[in-house]
Amino acid sequence: MLSMKNSNIENLLLLPKNFQLTDVQGPYIDRLLDKSPVFSRLLVIEEKIQPLLRDMETEGLTLSAAWFTEGLMLLRHQQAEYEQEIRSLVGTKDIFTNDYEPIKLFLQSNDLPFAKSIEDLSKYKNIHPIYPLFAKYKQKNMFINQWGEHLSECDQTIDGNIVLTGHWKSFSSYTGRITARNIALTSLPSLMRPYILPPPGFQIVSLDASNIELRFLAYYSQCTQIMQMFANSEDLHAYTGRLIIDTLEITGIPPLKARKLGKGFAYSVLYGAGDRTVQTSFQKQNVAVSLADVARLKDGFYSLFPEIKQFVMKQSSSPDLLTIFGAVKPMAIFRPTQKRNFACQSSVAVLVKLLMIIANKHAKVIHVVHDEVWILAREPTETVAQIIEEFTKKIIRLLPGFPTQGLLDVEIIGGNINDKQKYS
Question: Which of 83, 89, 256, 372 has its CA 20 to 30 A from that of 204?
Answer without folding.
Answer: 256
